[in-house]
Amino acid sequence: MKRVLGGIAALGIAALALTGCAANTGGGGDDDLITVGFAQTGSESGWRSANTESLKAALSEENGFELIFNAADNKQEAQIAAVRSFINQGVDAIVIAPITVDGWDDVLKEAKDAGIPVILEDRTVSASDDLYATWVGLDFKQEGKTAGEWVADNFGAEPTNLVILEGTTGSSAALDRATGFAEAIDGTSINVLDSQTGDFTRDGGKKVMEGFLQKYGSEIQVLFAHNDDMGLGALDAIKAAGLTPGEDIKIVTIDAVKDGMQALADGEFNYIVECNPLLGDQVADLVKKVLAGESVDKAYIVPDGAFTQEDAIELLPTRPY
Ligand code: AHR
């Protein structure tokens, strides 16, 4: 079901091939299949791996799709280049998990001008919603708020020092979680000592936490990490500093992937707010609806839970990711 390429698009492919910017994988061109280009952020976290697997499973040949997958290594220029490559290849639809909120206007307009619908998943963009068909994802602000309410309820009555490991700078996940968390602890006795990005990775979380520990030592009483992976990286730094995670430093994170839930069950994390990565089926359904000309909403929010140690012990054996 691939489109016939115009001269300009064909030139675009040649240029991309020369600069080595073609998508990671290509399809065989079965005309009965819906060709979808999926521009993923990268592979920064356990959540991201589960999200990629969910989309690959849903956008399968068995389900009527030919998937062209690209992971951009958390670099927005690479992600935009992948989207341009999808436009030049004349795919039927484009799915994007946008790394950052800003910077999407031009390429989304190019997709619109080429008549290719864009379905956003996971994170949001600041571009006008005329430029994409729909979005399915999570309420990041509410996730941050839920984490902040747990901190406020448990520590907000007494002066308590907290540090924050932020997600990728400029991503809607990091921006909205920060806003929700700040609102929830506003007016309490929580003192935010420091807040820096760990880029949603274990390495980033470890390095930034090492810096926090060097600077503030045992003054740190609570850690809020914008995702499990940064929290897991921070565990190494905390243990190396001779402190006990979950006891000397209480830890709240977001995601609830298996490794995070294991840390919660083991008492090294104290609370996790869920962020559901299994968006593939909804994305596949929306692609089909949009291409069939059916009306869809501009936004679909997938609900999240939140877990204590007891929940983690109960849920771990059946946790799918
Ligand atoms: O956008 C969702 C966030 O991106 C997840 O919380 C994080 O783990 C991922 O990298």
In short, what is this structure?
The chain has 321 residues and is an alpha/beta fold.
Superfamily at the CATH H level of the largest domain? Answer: Response regulator
Structural class: alpha/beta
Q: Could you tell me how far the N terminus lies from the C terminus, measured between alpha carbons in angstroms?
A: 33 Å
CATH first level of the largest domain: which class?
A: Alpha Beta
Approximately how much beta-strand content do the residues carry?
A: 15-25%
CATH fold topology of the largest domain:
Rossmann fold
Question: How many H/I helical runs?
Answer: 11
**What's the architecture of the largest domain, going by CATH?**
3-Layer(aba) Sandwich
List segments where confidence is low: pLDDT < 50 over at least 5 consecutive residues: 2-28
Strand order of the largest sheet: 2-1-3-4-5-11
- Overall form: elongated
Helical residues, percent: 40-55%
The pLDDT mean sits at: 92
**Molecules bound to protein:** alpha-L-arabinofuranose
* C-alpha Rg (nearest Å): 21 Å
H and E string? HEHEHEHEEHEHEHEHEHEHEEH
Q: How many domain modules?
A: 2
- What's the total number of strands? 12
